[in-house]
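tmp note - DNA-directed DNA polymerase
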Amino acid sequence: MTAPGFAFDCMLKYTKVKLSRLMDYDMLLLFEKSIRGGICQSTKRYVKANIPNIEGLDFNSNEPITWITYLDCVNLYGKSMLTELPFKDFEWIDDLDIDVTKIADDSKVGYILEVDIEYPKHLHKNHNDFPFLPFNECPPNSKVKKLLTTLSSKKNYVVHYKNLKQAIANGIVVTKIHRAIRFSQSKWMASYIKLCTSMRVLAKNEFEKDFWKLLINSVFGKCMENVRARTSIKLVSSEKKARKLMAKTSFKDRTIYSKNLMAIHQHKETIKFDKAIYVGFAILDVSKTFMYDFHYNVMKKRYGTKISSLYSDTDSLIYAIQTTNFFDDLKNSLLPYFDTSNYPKDHCCFSEIHKNQPGFFKDEMKSIIIKEFVSLRPKLYAYKTVDGTEKKKAKGVKKYIIKNHMQFNNYMDILNAFINHRTLKDEQTHRKMNFIQSNKHVVHSKTMNKLVLSANDDKRYIMDDRINTLAYGHYKLNGLL
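out:
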């Protein structure tokens, strides 16, 4: 038994919920079409903090006072699991005259809709950092689909009613509803999430904290399991049997181990769609409403044009904020939305009221001030703090390479070369990386010269200064793409 399977069974036993199976294939396809992961994007590629009377910072009185904050939502998916989730009574709706703005968030009936939407031009400036309704599509001049936040109009967009309701409240216009599914929903998973959360608060070490977090996240993962990706493998020792299996339409690949042994990889001839992907869809979509709500109704409402998003990744937001003192703002008006239990106990903003409670935001820096931030592209960024610490992130790169062979200045060199249109040498962009690989059940080590630093990012349009970006669909890009 795997951890996700164990966690899912624990949840079913504790909640006693009976989850319906989707018996309509078109419904299944619509839910599959609606699956979108977390938003990850680099919005502004470099910022330097400018704060007076801070040791380690060079203050420029001619520039506005600027703070860099790295905020992380505590257990974002756990927060979604505390809300109303679908579980039964799935049916197509004949009457598509649906006004989602009049449906309460805690309604006993929920909806998934396929709609056409328009993004009005007057919203582009204010929404550029974090546009609503992300969509899986290929960026211009690319053949690879990515989750993009764009300001474009969209056709046949599949969305949870809460996300659509939020988008409409912020000015997006629905031009047509193509299809809709109605379902019963309730907070049937909330008791399980509250149990795991309370046990995590009581945890006395990192292992216990991670264990209870795993029991929450694994349930979500089990709801997202893609049964289409499963493969059947058969070992054969005769040429006749191998040829027979390879002649089937389900044949996928083969691995030859020796003269007398071969593994035949096959697609599943029969797929059993027995996973509650509608739960995973709801968790993913509703989680995005919390991030948008925090960005627009908390941070943008508090700071207006004085705040800009630098980087976002699923449950985290990095901001540049023009304010005299962020900690004063936090203490006076933002504390109801934050978990500051990771601050020093003598800090003016320290509080354990929201400790490890899902949906509240933590300062990832634990009150330490970020000095500089650079982002080359999604999953590739670095920052320095006033105490001299450097933090680097590079997806797909071994930790020892990041720790010992990559510095903040390397990221800056790449960005500066990109700004000045300079050609880079391989030793600047590549690192030799050792790893252990298993091939045909034979373990061996390999060395690879891997590209680890690059400023090419096609998820947003990079402006002429090579620092700021625009979301695709922005009216300023008309005729440029």
